[in-house]
């Protein structure tokens, strides 16, 4: 089992996308890359922590490769959008890959370079690639948030 950590806007949607990937064993959402210990959602939302909202993925590399996870990451957000995704604005929504090893760093740099050279985007790719740092788990209400909301809607229908 290995870990990968991605910031690509609101962590709810990022997590929902990675949960669908075969070989992903578990996901959680939280905060990484800031200077504030044990931040809560409101701290991060207030833009006082420097953290990004992230999804941490535990995966089986025998089933899904890190390169395949990066392909999902690039697909689910706009890597040319600086500190925002859609209507969500602020550094907490930045595009960032937090690497847990030198191999991940090299692979992420290579994948970003390949994406840029393909000319898919008219603007530069602004995704940051950084070493993983302290990971602060978001509260339970934020874990698998979109799945919980769908379940609540289904329960109301029945």
TrEMBL record:
This protein's UniProt keywords: Oxidoreductase
Keyword Signal: no
Residue stretches making up the Peptide methionine sulphoxide reductase MsrA domain: 3-152
Domain of life according to the entry: Bacteria
Keyword check for Mitochondrion: no
Catalytic residue positions: 10
Documented EC number(s): 1.8.4.11
A Pfam family it matches: PMSR
Reactions performed catalytically: [thioredoxin]-disulfide + L-methionine + H2O = L-methionine (S)-S-oxide + [thioredoxin]-dithiol; L-methionyl-[protein] + [thioredoxin]-disulfide + H2O = L-methionyl-(S)-S-oxide-[protein] + [thioredoxin]-dithiol
PANTHER family assigned: PEPTIDE METHIONINE SULFOXIDE REDUCTASE, PEPTIDE METHIONINE SULFOXIDE REDUCTASE MSRA 2
HAMAP family: MsrA
Family: Belongs to the MsrA Met sulfoxide reductase family.
Descriptive protein name: Peptide methionine sulfoxide reductase MsrA
């Amino acid at each position: 089992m290995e870990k990968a950590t991605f910031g690509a806007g609101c962590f709810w949607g990022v997590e929902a996308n990675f949960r669908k990937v075969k070989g992903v064993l578990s996901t959680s959402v939280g905060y990484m890359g800031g200077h504030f210990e044990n931040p809560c959602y409101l701290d991060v939302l207030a833009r006082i922590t420097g953290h990004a909202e992230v999804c941490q993925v535990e995966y089986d590399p025998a089933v899904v490769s890190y390169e395949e996870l990066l392909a999902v990451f690039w697909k689910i957000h706009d890597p040319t959008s600086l500190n925002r995704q859609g209507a969500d604005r602020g550094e907490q929504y930045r595009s960032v890959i937090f690497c847990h090893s030198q191999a991940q760093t090299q692979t992420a740099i290579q994948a970003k370079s390949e994406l840029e050279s393909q000319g898919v985007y008219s603007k530069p790719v602004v995704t940051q690639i950084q070493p993983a740092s302290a990971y602060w788990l978001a509260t339970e209400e934020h874990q698998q948030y979109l799945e919980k909301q769908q379940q609540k809607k289904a329960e109301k229908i029945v």
